[in-house]
Amino acid sequence: QITLKESGPTLVKPTQTLTLTCTFSGFSFSTNGVGVGWIRQPPGKALEWLALIYWDDDKRYRPSLKSRLTITKDTSKNQVVLRMTNMDPVDTATYYCAHRKGAFDVWGQGTVVTVSS
Amino acid sequence: QSVLTQPPSVSAAPGQKVTISCSGSSSNIANNYVSWYQQLPGTAPKLLIYENDERPSGIPDRFSGSKSGTSATLVITGLQTGDEADYYCATWDTSLSAWVFGGGTKLTVL
Question: Are the Cβ atoms of B37 and A104 closer than 8 angstroms?
């Protein structure tokens, strides 16, 4: 059974860099077509896709945030890391990671990140 | 504004049927698979429908999806109070090279 769990700071200051880790089990990046994505949800608002990394290390980013985002994977640790630079209060949201095989079929519980000085 | 357009809210009585629409364009829905997600209050989204009309194991057949042209539809029959949630459509947008989500629809079971 596939599980994912997000971890990282709950509070970051404006201009700082956010680093979030998604630790997963039940699948591996050795499987063709597998990906892990990051999706966020500001309070009371809709889901917003951020980034996706595939089994072959292909990476995709939300165009409007591409300059601020970096997604990497560590297959030995079963982890995917998302870095977002120059954080702003508008980046306050719940951040989810999700397994993707076709659709985002399994999601983590999410981690709340608040950007405030 | 979301690339995919959903009605902000829908409502119906228990036992009734509700339809949630998702309108897109030729760069997204028309040429890519659509998926639907249910987000119960305070929880993470859950996959309901993938590849336009397929249900993952464990999803009741009260939930069904379809697609025609640049629009997709989620139908929920036999409504239950436990179906009260936000529902999101999603697909890949070829022009944007990005996954896009709809703005979400809040379902109220009266």
Answer: yes
User: One digit per residue, pLDDT tens: chain A, 117 residues?
Assistant: 999 999 999 999 999 999 999 999 999 998 899 999 999 999 999 999 999 999 999 999 999 999 999 999 999 999 999 999 999 999 999 999 999 998 999 999 999 999 999
d(CA A69, CA B87) in angstroms, rounded, equals 27
A–B CB contacts, 8 A cutoff, strictly below: 59
Shortest CB distance from A105 goes to which of B2, B47, B99?
A: B47
A23 burial type by CB count under 10 A (0-12 exposed, 13-18 middle, 19+ buried): middle
Tell me how far apart the alpha carbons of residues B32 and B86 are, in angstroms, rounded to a whole number: 23
* B56 → chain A, closest CA residue: A105
Chain A residues interacting with chain B (CB cutoff of 8 angstroms): 37, 39, 46-49, 52, 60-63, 96, 102-110
Residue the block writes with tokens 């464990």:
B58
Distance from the Cα of A52 to chain B's closest Cα (Å) equals: 9
In this structure, are strands B98-101 and B85-93 parallel, antiparallel, or unpaired?
A: antiparallel
